[in-house]
């Protein structure tokens, strides 16, 4: 029998041991030492593969919780004066991953976190390796065309003409919403780009009281003013009330302001509610106001023929925010701001830096997309989405999204059938399931006392969950209601058994804690 496998193993161990004596200057690009470069990267990949394997095991804890003062003692995060050996860097990588929250765990329900899609992850690895900027075609030819193709699919899903639409990938939905508001202002008052807001009427914008906070933030950043961003009342399900919107628009006009922007939310952060886009679009057309749809969370539902009716009217919007890193499951960050009218982004953001955007290049310079972005350098957010979308196809996404919607219906029904659980919004409209758990000894109390005690239940249960590390679901403060759990079903790895486990775990923790509250 040949000893070659044993010899190879010994050689690998020897190469690994050398990392204790090697530094970053001993590997590429500073040293033409491929052998040790390969060994170092191989050890890092081992750490990543181990983490991925453990994260997808249900018996693995979601987190090992430590208070900040304790965490500082466990891990050394200081930047040293002297270089550290490569072996220490590998150990640091492993420790950092082991001490973080495993947001890809099938029983992590705390945020709009869609787990870890391995194909998308592969795309992100490849993107990081290429390390290419996205400002001009000559620097990123394939990526520019890739972005255009991905945007085309998104325009078509919305219902726009892809030959007349535009868009840009942005570092998060908040920045995408900022793109939309800034472009809307430019569309109505182009001189504001050069002269600011002092030479134009006092602008105001509108959004629901359950919208994402980034709309008010965008009003602040653009100089419109957060006080000129008006929150519109919502109904019991969290949907904007169109009549209240129209009344506020009229009120603002009577006070001498210029309404210019309305944001309808498609899938609110807390309740997963859908603003009535058709009715809001009617109002916007009547008063000649830009309609933006923040579909950061709910945009992925456009890929399900069975459920896309919830976004009926979205094709009437002038702009749409859509975050594929949410419902579609792409690796963070992956957010797009989409525009029905081509050319507006260039007009709004173009600064014509002649060291980048020369007009006499030997190709069609319309493919130099960097000048329509607020930022200069731009990360390639499309590779991971493009690769993942190819892996699933349109039919794969249809099945994935329908599966999650079916799980939400199943979980809601299980809550209704289990003593002690009450749904805050029944039926839930999306994958956000908001509910209370009422311990047995509280169920006979009068309403006022029950509500007062219920305020403390969810935080206490959440704290115990973090201590156990077996599952995690967030709770939500609300001015109108006691704290309730906000469950998000968005990870494609979730099963009915995971949902059953959560229900039983909350009951177990809730009953054991009530005596101490």
UniProtKB/TrEMBL annotation:
Summary of subunit composition and partner proteins: Homodimer.
GO cellular component terms given for this protein: cytoplasm
Cofactor(s) of this protein: pyridoxal 5'-phosphate
Protein name, as recorded: Glutamate decarboxylase
Any one Pfam family match given in the protein's UniProt record, by short name: Pyridoxal_deC
UniProt cross-references to SUPFAM superfamilies, sorted A to Z: PLP-dependent transferases (SSF53383)
InterPro entries assigned: PyrdxlP-dep_de-COase (IPR002129), PyrdxlP-dep_Trfase (IPR015424), PyrdxlP-dep_Trfase_major (IPR015421)
Keywords from the named record: Decarboxylase, Lyase, Pyridoxal phosphate
Molecular function GO labels: glutamate decarboxylase activity; pyridoxal phosphate binding
Family assignment from sequence similarity: Belongs to the group II decarboxylase family.
Species this chain originates from: Mesorhabditis belari
Modified residues (N6-(pyridoxal phosphate)lysine): 326
PANTHER family the UniProt entry points to: GLUTAMATE DECARBOXYLASE, GLUTAMATE DECARBOXYLASE-RELATED
One of the GO biological process terms: gamma-aminobutyric acid biosynthetic process
